[in-house]
Specification:
Length: 150
């Protein structure tokens, strides 16, 4: 079984965009080195909305990434940077990354909200649109030095 993690974040102001982008790039650089990371992709959608999906060998591998820097430090800023934030996790039989419509559906059906200081109306209802600008998709590929986590 593979562990899937999806996040959707909407940056509430262009003012926070440079800080977020720097934190995002540091996290992407880091994730590629984490044992147990399989693959992922991210998408910048309209309205400063960022989607990320990652596939892991286990929930523990994902939690190791989540709970350590640089991701841990970035997460401390998200309540102020974002007015919409949600995530969803599940396990699946294969390591194939689902399509954006499937990821959106999972987020809406079983996703959870992340607390933000200035929630939008859509944050309160999880009335998120399906990703529209899919040509901005970027793959996240692991470094060849990764090893499997048992």
């Amino acid at each position: 079984m593979y562990f899937v993690s999806v996040t959707r974040l909407r940056i509430r102001s262009v003012f926070f965009l440079p800080q977020f982008l720097l934190a995002n790039e540091a996290s992407i650089k880091s994730i590629k080195k984490i044992p147990g990371f399989i693959a992922g992709k991210e998408l910048i959608d309209k309205g400063f909305t960022f989607w990320t999906v990652t596939i892991w060998e286990s929930a523990e591998a994902m939690k190791y990434f989540r709970n350590n820097d640089p991701h841990k430090t970035a997460m401390r800023n998200l309540p102020n940077w974002c007015n919409e934030a949600a995530y969803v996790h599940w396990t699946q039989e294969d390591d194939v990354i689902p399509t954006w419509p499937v990821l959106h559906q999972k987020l809406i059906e079983i996703g959870k909200l992340t607390k933000v200081k200035f929630p939008s109306g859509k944050q309160l209802t999880m009335d998120y649109a399906i990703p529209a600008w899919t040509k901005s998709e970027r793959p996240i590929k692991k470094n060849s030095t990764n090893t499997r986590v048992n």
